[in-house]
Write a structure and sequence with these properties.
Length: 87
């Protein structure tokens, strides 16, 4: 892995692949955790959550739409709209 494999510092859209590249860069020693957090304006907690998700569920665990399922947290119930006449 080289510096060219890392996402650009101005990355705004964090898809699975980009998150995984940052985690791989830190794990390989290419970039420090502190530098990754500074460069990508991440909190340490956010980075560590990416790392935990990869360890637990692989790269697919980084999908934003699946985070609730992988974290084991139940999503709050949303009120359902009743069809029919309004009162």
């Amino acid at each position: 892995m080289t510096e060219d494999d890392l996402p650009p510092p101005d990355t705004k859209r964090w898809v699975m692949r980009r998150k995984a590249e940052v985690v791989a860069g830190v794990r390989s020693g290419l970039i420090s955790l502190e530098e990754a957090c500074r460069r990508y304006t991440l909190s340490v907690e956010e980075f560590l959550s990416w790392q935990r998700l990869i360890d637990s569920h692989g790269v697919r665990g980084l999908r934003a739409t699946r985070l609730q399922d992988y974290r084991g947290a139940a999503a709050p119930a949303r009120p359902r709209m009743m069809s029919g006449a309004a009162e």
